[in-house]
Structure to design on (204 residues):
């Protein structure tokens, strides 16, 4: 009888131990999805952060226009001859006015072939104000035309009354049939925009 009681107690104890183990395993299995859920909840928050940082950069770019066209040219180390030519011809004050302009600005390198063709020095070119007053306004359009708004394949009237034509490859053809490539675009000024070019445009 005692043996039967001991056996019964042993069976009950074993059953209780197995039940406890099963409960622990069940608790462990239940806890695992919670960890996975927490990890998944963190991932979308990390993806949102880089997108939020891009917006202020665009606002900063829109506030860069703080100088007139004449001031931009004067501060650009690649436009020194153009700046000197504008002053010599008395046209620098025009590009400081509030009126909107678009300037296709020849770089210093763009003037080299002109000096060679005319057989003159830079100083001699700057002294020829009659020529400068004909050529320089040919690089100016009396309205603001950003790169995205250029009317490709259409004659564009310049400040001296002559026209230029720009292809969709950003190549300008002048009145003599010579061409110039637009090498830089949308240098924004308070009174318009500057695009740099690699050749001097000739109106005739």
């Amino acid at each position: 009888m005692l043996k039967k009681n001991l056996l019964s107690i042993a069976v009950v104890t074993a059953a209780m131990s197995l039940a406890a183990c099963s409960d622990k395993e069940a608790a462990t299995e239940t806890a695992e999805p919670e960890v996975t859920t927490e990890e998944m909840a963190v991932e979308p928050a990390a993806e949102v952060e880089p997108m939020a940082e891009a917006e202020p950069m665009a606002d900063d770019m829109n506030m860069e226009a703080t100088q007139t066209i004449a001031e931009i040219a004067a501060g650009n180390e690649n436009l020194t001859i153009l700046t000197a030519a504008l002053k010599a011809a008395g046209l620098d004050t025009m590009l400081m006015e509030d009126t909107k302009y678009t300037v296709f600005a020849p770089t210093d390198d763009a003037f080299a072939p002109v000096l060679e063709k005319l057989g003159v020095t830079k100083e001699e070119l700057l002294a020829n104000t009659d020529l400068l007053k004909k050529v320089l306004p040919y690089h100016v359009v009396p309205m603001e035309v950003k790169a995205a708004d250029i009317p490709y394949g259409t004659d564009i009237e310049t400040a001296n009354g002559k026209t230029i034509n720009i292809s969709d490859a950003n190549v300008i053809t002048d009145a003599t049939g010579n061409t110039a490539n637009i090498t830089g675009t949308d240098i924004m000024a308070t009174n318009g925009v500057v695009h740099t070019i690699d050749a001097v445009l000739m109106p005739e």
Notes: Helices lie at 2-53, 55-62, 69-74, 80-89, 108-118, 122-127, 129-135.
